[in-house]
Amino acid sequence: MGSSGSGSLSDYDHKSKGNANQGASSGEDKCGKAFSALLEEVQNCNYFANTGNVPPVNTVVSIVFANPRLAVQDGQNVIIGYLPTKFNYLLLCIEEGINYSGLVSSSALAPLPSISVDISPI
Prior knowledge:
The chain is mainly β. The protein has a domain at 39-121: Alpha-Beta Plaits. The chain has two helices and eight strands; from the N terminus they run βββαβββαββ. The protein has a six-stranded antiparallel beta sheet with strand order 3-8-7-4-5-6. Strands 1-2 form a two-stranded antiparallel ribbon.
């Protein structure tokens, strides 16, 4: 059914540049936190379409906004998958100048193509 997430306002929690909280804020600065994620739509992304495979463990990745979603791309700027909607708050962090990179922590072709990543702000 597409992306996962709670569907709640907390999926969009963030702090704006003016230090005013917006959305369902907990007062927590999520922009500075590392996280792990299981990527979505791996089989529909350019990397899989071009190679018929998933990237190996320890592939360096970064997060970009590929309208309308946050995507994870490899070092050659090829999209390998999309972040779940619970990470949508990262778009505001990126717009404020924070970049995110990390590594593929696991990947598999069966039973379905899947990729997990470990990401941290840089």
